[in-house]
């Protein structure tokens, strides 16, 4: 009976997505954003947490609203914006500011992106990549997951991108969205 139980538990654990085991990679720090709405007579409040493992050394504070954080590279490589929203219109202020601060950086047309273990196509989730070119380079990643939009934008000097890109690709695979109990 014990061996049957062991096999069952082993099969169950093998079926869990890789994100169920997610811990930040050794060279990363787990950071969290918070999204909340007030409850009303018509709808209950929403309380979500969005986490990602940010590469170590990328420093910056979370905005008091909890919706975003802007981080700077440890060697002055550039900037990383990590934001979350419940509706696309809530991203306008971040995108407008980025366009104003980096006028020479232009995003490409959208490209679908595979993020196994992060997005589930069967649940209608998706990830989209926009490559940023110009005097500054990088990419903008939109992850639509669990009724939440996660925006990750990296803008760095062209010389820094070959070193920064693999760090960011590891970070994208750590994005998680959790429902929290509303108060």
Would you spell out the secondary-structure blueprint of this structure?
Elements: H1 2-15, E1 28-36, E2 47-55, E3 68-72, E4 78-85, H2 92-101, E5 105-107, E6 111-113, E7 126-134, E8 137-145, E9 148-156, H3 161-172, E10 176-179
Antiparallel strand pairs: 1-2, 2-10, 3-4, 4-9, 5-7, 6-7, 7-8, 8-9
Task: Report, as a whole number of angstroms, the end-to-end distance.
Answer: 44 Å
**SSE run:** HEEEEHEEEEEHE
Strand content: 35-45%
Tally of separate helices: 3
Q: Structural class per helix/strand content?
A: alpha+beta
Description:
With 183 residues, this protein is α+β, with helices and mostly antiparallel strands. The chain has one domain: Protein Transport Mog1p, Chain A. Helices cover 20% and strands 37% of the residues. The protein is built from three helices and ten strands, in the order H-E-E-E-E-H-E-E-E-E-E-H-E. Strands 3, 4, 5, 6, 7, 8 and 9 form a seven-stranded antiparallel beta sheet that branches.
Short recap of the structure:
Helix content is 20%, strand content 37%. The strands form two sheets. Strands 3, 4, 5, 6, 7, 8 and 9 form a seven-stranded antiparallel beta sheet that branches. It has a three-stranded antiparallel beta sheet with strand order 1-2-10. It contains three helices and ten strands; from the N terminus they run αββββαβββββαβ.
């Amino acid at each position: 009976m014990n061996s049957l139980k062991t096999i069952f538990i082993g099969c169950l654990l093998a079926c869990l997505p890789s994100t169920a085991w997610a811990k930040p990679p050794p060279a990363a720090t787990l950071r969290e954003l918070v999204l909340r709405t007030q409850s009303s007579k018509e709808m209950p409040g929403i309380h979500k947490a969005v986490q990602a493992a940010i590469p170590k050394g990328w420093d910056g504070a979370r905005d008091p609203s909890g919706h975003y954080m802007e981080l700077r590279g440890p060697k002055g490589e550039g900037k990383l914006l990590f934001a979350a929203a419940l509706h696309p219109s809530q991203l306008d202020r971040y995108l407008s500011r980025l366009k104003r601060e980096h006028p020479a950086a232009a995003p490409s047309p959208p490209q679908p992106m595979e993020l196994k273990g992060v997005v589930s196509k069967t649940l209608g989730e998706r990830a989209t990549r926009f490559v940023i070119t110009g005097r500054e380079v990088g990419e903008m990643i939109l992850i639509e997951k669990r009724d939440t939009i996660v925006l990750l934008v990296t803008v760095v000097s062209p010389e820094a991108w070959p070193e920064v890109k693999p760090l960011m690709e590891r970070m994208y695979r750590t994005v998680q969205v959790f429902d929290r109990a509303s108060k």
